């Protein structure tokens, strides 16, 4: 596996990043074609065995179940300091805007929910999902 520095950060990532949009409970969210946890874990484990250390998910993927599947698999198969985890947050809803929820408060809520889903105390890369 080839590795590179992520931008100007001190993170070294595999040149292949495993996108996790296809993982998650097919009964939750917008896609019926996602893989269940057992099959997702097999793919994540195989990726780790092949040297992939960079994983990308989002709170929007199957109502957070992609984050949950990824977090559990990484806890079981990897050391947290040896993988780079990226996740994404959604924009504020119209309801949040009308309730006066600030952008900062919205992002705090979203990251806290993602960290809970992942079972982690931090993510390495946090992206606006738009």
Describe the protein in words.
37% of the residues lie in helices and 17% in strands. It has one domain (3-128): Alpha-Beta Barrel (TIM Barrel). The chain is built from four helices and six strands, in the order βββαβαβααβ. The two termini are 30 Å apart. The strands form two sheets. It has a four-stranded parallel β-sheet with strand order 3-4-5-6, with helices on one face. Strands 1-2 form a two-stranded antiparallel sheet. The protein is globular. 31% of the residues are buried. The protein has 130 residues and is of the alpha/beta class.
Overall form: globular
Number of strands: 6
Ends: how far apart?
Answer: 30 Å
SSE-based structural type: alpha/beta
Q: What is the count of distinct domains?
A: 1
Please give the radius of gyration in angstroms: 15 Å
- Could you give the order of the helices and strands? EEEHEHEHHE
Summarize the structure.
The chain is an alpha/beta fold.
Topology:
Blueprint: E1 3-5, E2 12-14, E3 17-19, H1 37-49, E4 54-56, H2 65-77, E5 84-89, H3 94-99, H4 103-118, E6 125-128
Parallel strand pairs: 3-4, 4-5, 5-6
Antiparallel strand pairs: 1-2
